[in-house]
Design a protein that fits this description.
This protein has 78 residues and is α+β, with helices and mostly antiparallel strands. It has one domain: Arc Repressor Mutant, subunit A (Orthogonal Bundle). Helices cover 45% and strands 13% of the residues. The chain is built from 3 helices and 3 strands. A 3-stranded antiparallel β-sheet has the order 1-3-2. The longest helix has 15 residues. The radius of gyration is 12 Å and the shape is globular. The two termini are 20 Å apart.
């Protein structure tokens, strides 16, 4: 699978925190920098792209799940 550099950074950060909820602010600060902590729309775009690439059914994700109003979590592969 081909990922852009930013998609890779997002996925890597989520994978390093697998099983934990990563808040929008944490992920934005880690990948884009602290000045982007309020730009949640960036995450929606990149997580949506990642889901289309790695999920069997992106509309019903099994790997990158959303914790509404909080952030994202990567679930362990079963």
């Amino acid at each position: 699978m081909e990922l852009t550099a930013r998609e890779y950074d997002v996925l890597l950060y989520l994978m390093r925190n697998a099983g934990k909820v990563v808040t929008h602010r944490m992920l934005l600060a880690a990948v884009w920098g602290p000045e982007y902590k309020q730009e949640a729309q960036y995450l929606r775009v990149f997580v949506n792209r990642l889901r289309r690439k790695i999920e069997e059914d992106p509309a019903h994700p099994r790997h990158i799940v959303t914790d509404p109003g909080v952030g994202y979590r990567v679930l362990p592969v079963e």
